[in-house]
Predict the 3D structure of the following.
Amino acid sequence: MTKKEIPKAVVLLSGGLDSATTLALAGIAHDCYALSFDYGQRQKIELEHAKKIAQVIGAKEHLILRLDLAMIGGSALTSNTPVPKDGPTGGIPVTYVPARNIIFLAHALAWAEVLGAVEIFIGVNAIDYSGYPDCRPPFLRAFEKMAHLGTKAGVEGEKIRIIAPLINMSKAEIIKTGTILGVDYSLTHSCYDPAGELACGRCDACRLRLKGFAEADLQDPIPYQTDSHC
């Protein structure tokens, strides 16, 4: 790589608050290639938000891959199972999509090899999060090791790293960081069970988002269903 070349990175982009902040952080020192998934999720509106975010923040390319995890089911996000609205109940919630980050990272890894990117950014968080097992540091370390062992790039010595810049940040810290970077959070979507453009305000994702804005002493700019806030 010459001095004038900017390293490439694949950035997983859901359209949510965390992934938008991650894209902005990755873009400080990388040419970013945003990757989103149409996987049969009930909150498919997030993809429209992902398109806007990728354009505004300045991704070099934005790829939306189509998967059908609804055929597998097993999650309130990919089936008719109701999304919980009464706060955390303990254990892994029904909004967990089986092996989702494994599947997403595997596709990101394939694209990174094609692009010659040596880093994959993912906006997972292990502080203010829903308790998903595929958002924890041990999982990310294990996946990175697998990537080194099972790819052409890894075998030839060009190891691809998994970067999770938000992993140890609270939601308020994430929001403050994104605000400094100029992220327009009105473009983001977090709700698991929206009514059109209106977030429900009661699902786990909405609760964590609202808590984060409150603790950051900032106003959440997205619309919510009337009187639905927790």
